[in-house]
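Support request from a user on the community tier.

User writes: "When I paste my structure tokens into the form, the page sometimes reloads and wipes my input. The last time it worked, I copied everything first. Here is what I submitted, just in case something in the input itself triggers the reload:"
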């Protein structure tokens, strides 16, 4: 079910643009052009069920931000848009528990608004751990983060923080004070870096101390950023958001580096990295498993007769059926028309049956090519419960695959 966005804006043109931004992000949009309309909507059935609101500071019947108070009084997170740039207005807005405020200066305002609306939807997946021995400071920072819809966790010292980190795998950012009992912020940062790399957890150090040395100490011990208390909420949000976006960008780069662009399966690199660890774990835990190589038969003829686009479609088809029949397994496209499978958790007969179900369904599938229905088949070479290295097992599976091809294709051959 789509989240609801309330757009409070008296300019029809701006309301239309904001509404389109919201719809592009998946929001269900309701527009109000005056304070009277806002009150009527909020007092109606389901009036307080809005996920977030954008509120114009000045309306025809509410010139001084009255609409902001009205929307906030119903517990709706609010983003304020204003054409007023004076410091008095800014302070008046920030004195209220708003998500953010955006000056209506140029087209960048809409781009920034879209980012904020996107964050409100996605921040619930991002955990942030606040570590401070001061209850008042913990509560203040936690409240700021909750306005942005983050999942917030708290700890009163470094020792407890490490326990929470071990329990919660969704924590992306740790915000830690410097001076704390048991384990202080510098020691905590150092311990976090021993256990979590920079592409998994970001650390922001905070301190009320006036000495500039503390920011350098934090950074040198593995922190990604530093804030001095008391900090401006705007700067705080910018630093936290920057940390979250940096982690997301790194994750996107890693996905691209480990994913086959055509089939969107993991690539050879990802398969090898995962399988080396998984095979060792299977052997240690005496878990039955198999390593299989899957190759499309007569693939060159498909490319020669129908073109490379048809060949690409056959690759996507095989990937689709692999996901269907081998869900839960590690699947990869190694290159060309060759795929790999690492599957575990059931006995040898069941592993074989799943591979054979894949082979049989592909053999009866048809792909439209230049007005014809073209069929294809796959050959499979498989190693069961191998004790050798991954490289050696891949060679064994390749040899079994070669045997399957030599014996007529469209079959499974088991490595000796």
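"...and here is what came back when it finally went through:"
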């Amino acid at each position: 079910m789509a989240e609801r966005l309330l757009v409070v804006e008296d300019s029809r043109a701006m309301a239309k643009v904001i509404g389109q931004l919201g719809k592009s992000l998946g929001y269900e949009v309701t527009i109000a052009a005056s304070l009277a309309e806002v009150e009527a909507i909020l007092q109606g059935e389901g009036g307080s069920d809005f996920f977030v609101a954008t509120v114009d500071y000045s309306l025809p019947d509410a010139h001084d931000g009255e609409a902001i108070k009205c929307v906030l009084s119903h517990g709706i997170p609010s983003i304020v848009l204003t054409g007023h740039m004076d410091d008095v207005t800014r302070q008046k807005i920030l004195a209220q528990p708003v998500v953010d405020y955006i000056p209506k200066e140029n087209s960048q305002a809409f781009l920034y608004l879209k980012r904020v609306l996107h964050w409100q939807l996605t921040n619930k997946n991002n955990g942030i751990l606040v570590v401070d021995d001061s209850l008042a400071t913990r509560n203040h920072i936690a409240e700021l983060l909750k306005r942005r819809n983050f999942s917030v966790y708290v700890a009163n010292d470094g020792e407890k923080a490490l326990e929470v980190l071990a329990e919660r795998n969704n924590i992306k950012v740790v915000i830690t004070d410097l001076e704390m009992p048991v384990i202080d912020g510098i020691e905590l940062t150092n311990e976090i870096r021993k256990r979590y790399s920079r592409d998994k957890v970001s650390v922001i150090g905070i301190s009320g101390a006036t000495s500039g040395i503390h920011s350098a100490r934090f950074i040198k011990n593995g922190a990604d950023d530093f804030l001095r208390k008391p900090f401006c909420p705007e700067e705080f949000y910018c630093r936290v958001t920057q940390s979250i976006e940096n982690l997301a960008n790194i994750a996107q780069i890693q996905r691209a580096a480990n994913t086959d662009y055509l089939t969107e399966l993991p690539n050879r690199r990802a398969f090898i990295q995962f399988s080396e660890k998984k095979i060792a774990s299977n052997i240690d835990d005496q878990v039955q498993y198999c390593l299989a190589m899957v190759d499309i038969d007569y693939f060159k003829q498909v490319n020669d007769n129908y073109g490379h686009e048809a060949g690409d479609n056959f690759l996507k088809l095989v990937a689709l059926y692999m996901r269907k029949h081998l869900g839960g397994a590690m699947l990869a496209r190694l290159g060309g028309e060759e795929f790999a499978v690492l599957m575990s958790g059931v006995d040898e007969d069941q592993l074989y049956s799943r591979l054979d179900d894949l082979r049989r369904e592909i053999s009866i599938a048809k792909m439209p090519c230049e007005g014809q229905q073209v069929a294809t088949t796959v050959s499979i070479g498989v190693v069961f419960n191998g004790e050798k290295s991954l490289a050696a097992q891949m060679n064994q599976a390749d040899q079994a695959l070669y045997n399957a091809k030599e014996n007529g294709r469209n079959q499974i051959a088991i490595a000796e």
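Agent notes: The reload is a front-end session timeout and is unrelated to the input. The first strand starts at residue 4 and ends at 8. The chain has 15 helices and 17 strands. Escalated to web team.
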